[in-house]
Amino acid sequence: MEETCKNVYITTPIYYVNDVAHIGHAYTTIIADMLARYSRLVGYDTFFLTGTDEHGQKIAQSAEARGKTAKEYADEVSGKFRQLWDDFDISYNKFIRTTDEEHKIGVQKAFEKMYEKGDIYKGEYEGYYCVSCETFFTEKQLVDEEFCPDCGKPTNIVKEESFFFKLSKYEDKLLKWYEENEDCILPRAKKNEIVNFVKGGLKDLSISRTSFDWGVKLPDSINEPNHVMYVWLDALMNYITALGYGTTEENMNYWPCKVHLVGKDILRFHSIYWPAFLMSLDLPLPDHIAAHGWWTRDGEKMSKSKGNVVNPKEVADAYGLDAFRYFMLREVPFGQDGDFSQKALIDRINSDLGNDLGNLLNRISGMSGKYFDFKVSSKDVEKFHQKELNEVNEILENVEEYIFKMQLNRYLEDIWKVLTIANKAIGDYEPWAKMKEGKTDEAMALVALITNIVARVALLLDSVMPEKISKIATSLGMEISTDTYNKLIVNKGLLDDTTITKVEQLFPRIEEVLLEQPNVSDTSKTEVEEKSAKKETQTQEEEPDNLITIDKFFETTLKIGTIVEAEEVPKSKKLLKLQVDLGEGRNRQILAGIKEFYSADDLIGTQACVVANLKPAKLMGMLSEGMLMAAKDENGLSLIRPEIPKKSGTKIS
Ligand code: MSP
């Protein structure tokens, strides 16, 4: 980050309160949270804003459809967004609502200022309006003369008195800004689209409506009580009213914004209207407006009507919040669209997090425990491992640059290169062999090298996976702080002598019983090579106590079973009696303790994973010839089932 920038202001879009939060919303918020956490750790005075967008026709209509007032409805949904971000430990400094009194006052002040400057005039709007996108269109822009070019929904013809903002006046100034500030819109490809759009000519923008009243009134000084502000003018202003613009001004020192994070669908509003409004207000322009791509599910756009919306809370509950955060940030290059699949998420957890990162921590505690009573000293690292240290430092020197250029996946890729160096060093130097040869200093230097690498990585991953990283830090006896960041990352120093504490496995392997076989041919050659190199490095040294060999695992026969009959066991609170087809030509009778969670009727025709080689046992006098696999947490019990139905009796491996 540039040296001059001491205050860092990061924003998410404010979310419309007519929808439930899905992974698209979570994505924007998680990226912003990562940037904010990273900035704080580096030592910048950081202000992170999120909130909800509560005015406009769309929200008024949604509320009416539910028999609620707009404010009641907005309170309810805004509360849910806030709750979700709190559950996700999102480190926002302020949660703004456009129904907040200070916001309304600030927007009115801004309107007055733009009006006084001569940038707002009264006229009549005649054209087409898409309520869903809250956007005006000309006839030429419509699809089939009727439909919104953005969302495809029918538009309404609007003819009403309206105030206009002189957007056309700012055309040249905007083009100059784009030209002089290479990274003002990220990624660059998206910037080109915007520049071409503006070059095509800008029309003045209608900024007030009279046909409904759920919005911020125009300032009293204008004396037009029938007008409310256009929702995008109201919404965009949140970025300054949240800092006290027009009221307390108390946090205006954070302006201009470092990064406005937005989805690609709302980039035009942010990179054309917003800078033009700011120019009109004589305020400096943001450093970056960064537009990410869209998440689809199984290749389709997510929507409530299709029932394919991915609930971020469910994913985080099932797989862990930190793993979910890592996945979102790593899986898709910023700006591109991504498809959400559980398989990809599980692969990331098992491979990147479990094998590469988690295992390394196990190895540190294993080796330091076995050879050095958990003590680690960095005193000989430079003597024996200058080469590895140089490699690591060289890679990490550049990673910071990626952050505010929004190349987050590259940031993570480079951190993983460093983990590869650590894993490889263990195989190359074989500390167990050094111990046998009596070269204790060399073995210690190697363990300390690995500890120092993981410590550096922990500092850089703290913004991505704060909870897991705090466990790693505890295990290494280090503090995640700006001081440590400066010492290890900026000044490339080494850890003080430390004592390692054993921690539970950080990323336990997620069983692949839920999955189809991973498609090995999809994996690039270098990745395959890297993976096998890594396996070779995991040789003789000790493993955590609870690990078993693959042979041991295969002693259990797991199969897909189809439940063909199900009935309650009389007098039993827990048991259901099931007849399960395991493809053996006869059904097995299995008694399962799941009555509190499933009704017998709902189970018939469904599948489950079955332990097929359990010794038959009698429960309440009845024979049970197997066991269904299930997972239970505080939210209840779920049977483990194949993601896609499989033939009865299919073996699980
Ligand atoms: N209220 C406006 C923003 C006003 S900001 C001054 C709005 N709200 S929204 O709730 O519809 O969208 C908020 C953000 O969520 C946008 O950045 C949008 O791109 C993002 N996403 C909504 N669905 C998405 C996906 N399926 N995938 C990724 N992000 C998407 O627009």
Task: Give a written overview of the molecule.
By secondary structure, the protein is of the alpha/beta class. Among the domains are: 343-499, Isoleucyl-tRNA Synthetase, Domain 1; 556-652, Beta Barrel (OB fold (Dihydrolipoamide Acetyltransferase, E2P)). It is built from 21 helices and 27 strands. The strands form 8 sheets. Strands 1, 2, 3, 4, 8, 12 and 13 form a 7-stranded parallel sheet that branches. The protein has a 5-stranded antiparallel sheet with strand order 21-20-19-22-25. Strand 12 (259-263), helix 9 and strand 13 (288-292) form a beta-alpha-beta unit. Helix 12 (342-372) runs parallel beside helix 14 and helix 16 crosses helix 18. The structure holds 5'-O-[(L-methionyl)-sulphamoyl]adenosine.
